[in-house]
Amino acid sequence: MFRIAGSVTAARLTAACCRTVTTKQFQVHGASLHVLSSDTSRKTRHGPAHRTPPSWQSVRSMASAGESQSKINYIFFGLAALFGGGGIVYWWSRKYMRETSKDTPKKAAAAVSSASKEAAETVAEKPVPETTKSAPAAPPPAVETPAEAAPDAESKKLLDAVPQSYPDFEVMPEIPGHAKYLLIGGGTASFAAFRAIRASDAKAQVLVVTEEEELPYMRPPLSKELWYSDEPKLVEKMKFKQWNGKERSVYYNPPSFYVEPKELAYQENGGVAVVKGRKVMKLNPQKQVAVLDNGWEIFYDKVLIATGGRPRNIPVFERASQEVKDRVTLFRGIKDFKRLDEVSKNASSIVVVGGGFLGSELTCALGKRSRDSSLKVIQMFPEQGNMGKVLPEYLSQWTTAKVREEGATVKPETFVKRARFSDGKVILKLNTGEEISTDHVVVAVGLEPNTELAKESGLEVDDMHGGFRVNAELEARSDIWVAGDASSFYDIKLGRRRVEHHDHAVVSGRLAGENMTGAKKPYWHQSMFWSDLGPDVGYEAIGIVDSSLPTVAVFAKATEKDTPRAVVEETGESLRSVTETEAEATLPTKEEAVAAESSETTAAPEVESSAQPTEPSEVPSATDTEPSASEKTEGVRDTKVFDLANYPFALFPHPESATDEPAPDVEAAAKLVAEVEAENRVAPTPKEDYGKGVIFYLRDDIIVGVVLWNLFNRMPIARKIVKEGKQHQDLAEVAKLFDLHADED
Q: Is residue 132 classed as helix, strand or coil in its secondary structure?
C-alpha cells in the first residue's frame, strides 16, 4: 500500500491513475489512501482527511527540502499507473524514492545548519554605533553554530515513519469509500451475516447500509409480544416482555456495539458500522462499486444483498385518494408499529385486511387491546378461515373462532371492492354489498421481494417465485451473495423456493456470511416458521405447508406445557427459531418410539399378549358412541384426521398384541374415518379444542411439509423427515416419533 504525501491535486491525480489499473493492487480507497495534507487541503474525495502531525522544526525543514522531490515522485507514480504494465518504471520509481528518502534527513539537517549560519553572519555584520567608536572595540559575542540536536521521541518517530498521518474525524466523509465486506440491508439476514463474518475473520471491517433509520432489529415481536406489554414506557424504548416475563429489546445489539462509519477503517480489531437512511441504487460487479442514492460510491471486496421485501398493497388502495392512503398502514417495520400503536390508542375502529400469519397476529393483538377500550377491530379476508392457505379447513375454522374470542369481528370470504374518504372516515365497500366506516386500515397480505437492484446491476430475477436467483452457495454473481426474503434458492428436496420467514433469514444470512469469508458451503437447511395467537396458542411449520395439498393429522390431549408461554418459560427464548435449533435433533428409533407408546396408558388399553389385533370393523361406530369433533371433521382436500383417544387400536396397536398377522395400516383406518364422516356429515366444531398434534402435508405420497400444533421442541424431527423425502406406508408410526403423550399424566 502506498502512502502519499502532498497536495490534494496530486493525491486525486494519483488515486485516479491507480484506479485505472486495479483497485485491489493499489488499495487507494477508504482507509488505504493516506494523505498528509496542509490546512488548506484537508479533504479528499476518495480518501479520509488527515491533520498534519505535531512536528519538530527539522521535520518541517525536511518537508520543505523534499518538496520538489515529492513532485517528481508523483510523476513516477502517475506514469506507472497510466501505462498499466510499466513495471520497470514502477520499480525504478520506488528505488529512486528509497535512495532519495535516505538523503532527505541530511538535506533537512543541512537546511537547519544553513539557517543557523545565516543568523550568525547577520549578527556579525551589524554596524557599531558612533558613540562607541572611541571605545576599544569589543569582540563580537561568540555565536555558537547549533549542532544537530537529537530529536525528541515524538519527532524521531515521525522521522522514522515519514510520511505519516492520523485521521481528522471532524472533516472526514460520513460514509467510507471502501469496505471489505458490504452488506445491503439492515435486517435479520444482515445481522446473521456480520456475526458469521466476524466469527471467521476476527478483524473484519463490515459496513451495513440500510434504508431504515434503525439499527438491525428483530421483526417477530412487532406483531406479537410488544402488543401484550402493560408498560407503555417499555414499548417506547422498543423493549418487550417475553411470554415468560423476561424483558428484552427488539434490537439485536445496543448502539455501543457499532462504530461510526467514518471511523470503521481505523479499527485495528475490526468492527461493524451502520449507514442509516441510505439506499443502494446500483452495483457494478466488474468494478465492484456500489452507488448510493446520494451519488456516493463505495468500493467493496465482497457484498451481500439482504434487502428483504416490502409490504404488498392491493389495487383498491393504490387507486384510492390521498386521504385514504394517509389512513392505510402497510405493516412491516418499527415505524409501522409505532404508527399503528398510536392510532390504536385514539381510533374508534380499525380494519385489518388479510388472514395470514401477520394479519391474524395483529388482529389478536388489537383485539386484546380493544377489551380495555372502545376500539372495534374488524378482520376480513377472501379465504374461508384464518390462515386458510396454510392450515386444513377444519383447523383454519378453529383458528377463526379463536381470533373471535380475542375480541375481534372476523369476516371470512370478504374483500374490499372500493374505498373512499368521507367525513373523516374511510368508507369500505365490500363484495357482500356492505359498507364499513373505519378510522384506519391495516394491510397485511404478504411481501414483494426488493429486487430493484437487479435491473441496474445485471442480476437475474426468478420470474416464478420472485427474488434474486442464486446458486447453492447463495451466490448471484462473483463476490455477490443474496440472503433472506430476497433470495430464490434451490432446495435439493423441494425444488427452487423463496421463503419469507425469520429462521430462513437467520440461517441463510449466516451461511452467506461464512461463504463471503471463503467457506463455500451449500444451503441445505430446511427453515421453519412459527406463529402465535397470543401466549396460549401457537404452531410451528417446516417445508411446503399448503392447504391445497392432501394432509394427514394426528391429535392428542394438550397439557399446560403445550403453549407458547410454557416453551418460553422453559427455554428463556422468545425466538423459537433459536430454541428449535438448539433442540436435540436425534430421532428416536422405531423401537424407542414403540416403547414410549406402550408406557402411555391413554394410548391403548391393556390386552392379552395372545389377542389378535383389532380389526377396523371393531372400532366404535357412530351408532355406538357420539363422535367427537375430530371424528366429525369432513375430509376437505383429502384431509385425514385421527384422534388418538378414539382410534387407539387401528392406529397404535399395543406392542404386546403383535402377532404374525400384519397390523392394520393408516389407509384402513382412514377408510373407516371416511365412512363415519359420510354417515354424519357434521361440519367442524370450532369450539372443540384440538389440543396438540402433528399435520403431515403430502405430495406424491411423500411428506413435504409438517405443522406442529401446540407441539414444541420437536422441529429437528420434522426437519429430518422432510429432508429424507421418503414414502411412508403408515403415518401413524411416523407420528409416534413426536411423542405426543410425553407430558400427559
A: helix
pLDDT score of 166: 52
Distances (CA, A) of 282 to 47, 292, 305, 392, 454: 21, 7, 11, 43, 8
Give the amino acid at 88: I
**Are the CB atoms for 17 and 82 separated by under 8 Å?**
yes
The Cα–Cα gap between 302 and 318 comes to 38
Amino acid 2 reads F
DSSP state, 227? G
Residue 656 pLDDT: 34
Residue 713: the pLDDT is 85
pLDDT tens digits along 683-722: 344 445 688 899 999 999 999 999 998 888 889 999 999 9
Q: What distance in Å separates the CA atoms of residue 341 and residue 332, rounded to the nearest whole number?
A: 13
Q: How far is CA 336 from CA 51, 329, 448, 482, 653, in A?
A: 44, 7, 17, 25, 53
Q: Residue 484: its pLDDT value, please?
A: 96
pLDDT in tens, 146-159: 555 555 666 555 54
- What is the grid cell recorded at 74? 508523483
Place of cell 447453492: 472
DSSP 3-state of 64: helix
d(CA 601, CA 606): 8
Write out residues in the chain with pLDDT < 70, as ranges: 1-169, 567-569, 571-689, 742-745
Nearest residue to 627 (alpha-carbon basis) of 584, 664, 681: 681
Three-state DSSP at 530 gives strand
CA atoms within 13 A on the CB side of 272: 27
Sign for the pseudo-dihedral over CA of 490, 493, 498, 502: negative
> What's the chain's length in residues?
745
Q: Can you tell me whether residue 625 is helix, strand or coil?
A: coil
Q: What is the side-by-side strand order in the sheet with 702-709? A: 528-532, 538-543, 702-709, 692-699, 551-556, 640-643
Is the Cβ–Cβ distance between 408 and 367 less than 8 Å? yes
Q: Where are the beta strands (DSSP E) in 211-325?
A: 239-241, 247-249, 271-276, 280-284, 289-292, 297-305, 309-311
* pLDDT attached to residue 148: 52
- CA–CA distance, 607 with 628 (Å, rounded to integer): 24
Among the listed residues 255, 58, 73, 90, the one whose alpha carbon sits nearest the alpha carbon of residue 160: 58
d(CA 311, CA 329): 10
Give the pLDDT score at 232: 78
Give the whole-angstrom CA distance, residue 235 versus residue 238. 5
User: Which DSSP state fits 727?
Assistant: B
Stretch (H or E) spanning 532: strand 528-532
The amino acid present at 538, given as its one-letter code, is: G
Q: What pLDDT sits at residue 613?
A: 33
Are 698 and 544 within 8 A, CB to CB?
Answer: no
Amino acid at 454: A
Q: How far from 195 is each of 41, 216, 304, 420, 575, CA to CA, in Å?
A: 38, 12, 13, 47, 17
Chain centre to alpha carbon of residue 481: 14
How far apart CA 306 and CA 211 sit, in angstroms, is: 12
